[in-house]
Write a structure and sequence with these properties.
By secondary structure, the protein is α/β, with parallel strands linked by helices. The protein contains 16 helices and eleven strands. A seven-stranded parallel β-sheet has the order 4-3-2-1-5-6-7, sandwiched between helices. A four-stranded mixed β-sheet has the order 9-8-10-11, with helices on one face. Helix 5 runs parallel beside helix 6, helix 10 crosses helix 14 and helix 14 runs antiparallel to helix 15. The chain is globular, with a radius of gyration of 20 Å. The N and C termini lie far apart (about 50 Å).
Length: about 375
């Protein structure tokens, strides 16, 4: 039987690449549900191409346009995030690709977990905001979580070789983003256009800005803590500009196992969909004779303070990572609208952490309240 897939965030970078994987293996995968927020035309074309059963447009203002386009074709159309949460647990879904951007991905991902679905997790903010709650629920409802982020997929693959042996450290690689070689003064004057020029990866605007500030890598540190049960002092970040080594696992005897490949998100997406099988993929394969060098360096937290903020929030725990994520979402949105400067992004996040109404053991209600309260605070600061 084909694995039936729901794609949350189908019109974004991960969503479109997920559908490309499905195109390459129509005998193995079937798309039954698509969820998007605003990209009406692309969503409709995807729904028609894959002949899906259900479509959810989260921005209810677009419901009429989507319904007019798809209902005559027999495709059921729904509106709002609540609809996504209700439908994602249906019997016609086996795997949920959680690829919505930001905090908005938390609620439907939790709904899928409660239904015991396989979660192909690309939305790192879900674990940043509520890692303890999400992982506890995944164990309770026996919902496997398979990482889609290239770094976490790499760690997952390396751990398959661990054979139960203790892990000394996890090494998360980072390209360094577009400003790796810039000095701090030049970075301070960086524009939206500058920050969106990632050297290696083709991603959405929000995650590209997060990569430029290195907040994205900080979020990956927090995500790794929950996915792999590793404390902050056993998670290391290393700059690797070539983006060939996707991450590494170090063992007690000093041996390090790494996963390598060209920068192509379809590889970890496909592995999450097909695990434990490895399928053929129409992608560029590594030719080691063409690799002239692989370089590594420590990150510069003076130039990229967001990374330090992420470690700080992880060590603090409680609702601090949720607050960091909320402040960052608001600040990045403002930067993309040319309303604040580049270094205002971590400055706003730091201020929000300093003034946080801290909750040591937050409930899910606390997480949603923290997200809303910190977002209001960040908007005031802007």
């Amino acid at each position: 039987m084909r694995r039936r897939i729901a794609v949350l965030g189908s019109t974004g970078s991960i969503g479109t690449q997920t559908l490309d994987v499905v195109r390459q293996h129509p005998d193995l995968f079937e798309v039954t549900m698509l969820v998007a927020n605003n990209s009406v035309d692309l969503l409709c074309s995807q729904a028609v191409e894959f002949d899906v059963n259900n479509v959810v447009i989260c921005n209810e203002e677009h419901y009429g346009q989507v319904a007019d386009a798809l209902q005559p074709r027999g495709i059921k159309v729904f509106a709002g995030i609540k609809s996504a949460c209700e439908l994602v647990g249906g019997e016609e879904v086996d795997i949920v690709v959680a690829a919505m951007v930001g905090f908005s991905g938390l609620e439907p991902t939790l709904a899928a977990i409660r239904a015991g679905k396989i979660i192909a997790l690309a939305n790192k903010e879900t674990l940043v905001a509520a890692g303890d709650i999400v992982m506890s629920m995944a164990r309770r409802y026996e919902a496997p979580i398979l990482p889609v982020d290239s770094e976490h997929s790499a760690i997952f693959q390396c751990l398959l070789a661990a054979q139960g042996n203790a892990v000394a450290r996890i090494h998360l690689t980072a390209s360094g983003g577009p400003f790796r070689t810039w000095d701090r003064d030049r970075i301070a004057a960086a524009t939206r256009s500058d920050a969106l020029k990632h050297p290696n990866w083709n991603m959405g605007a929000k995650i590209t800005i997060d990569s430029a500030t290195m907040m994205n890598k900080g979020f990956e540190v927090i995500e790794a803590r929950w996915l792999f049960g590793m404390p902050a002092d056993k998670i290391n970040v290393v700059i690797h500009p070539e983006s060939i080594v996707h991450s590494m696992v170090e063992f007690e005897d000093g041996a390090v196992i790494a996963q390598l490949g060209w920068p192509d998100m379809r590889e970890p997406i496909q592995l999450a969909l097909s695990f434990p099988q490895r399928l053929s993929l129409n992608n560029r394969k590594l030719d080691f004779s063409l690799l002239r060098s692989l370089s590594f360096a420590a990150p510069d937290t003076e130039k990229f303070p967001a990374l330090g903020l992420a470690f700080e929030s992880l060590r603090r725990g409680g609702n601090a990572p949720c607050a960091l994520n909320s402040a960052n979402e608001v600040a990045v949105s403002a930067f993309l609208e040319d309303r604040i400067g580049f270094y205002d992004i971590p400055a706003i996040a730091e201020r929000c952490l300093e003034e946080l109404d801290y909750v040591e053991k937050p409930t899910l209600d606390d997480i949603f309240a923290t997200n809303d309260e910190v977002a209001r605070k960040a908007k005031e600061l802007i």
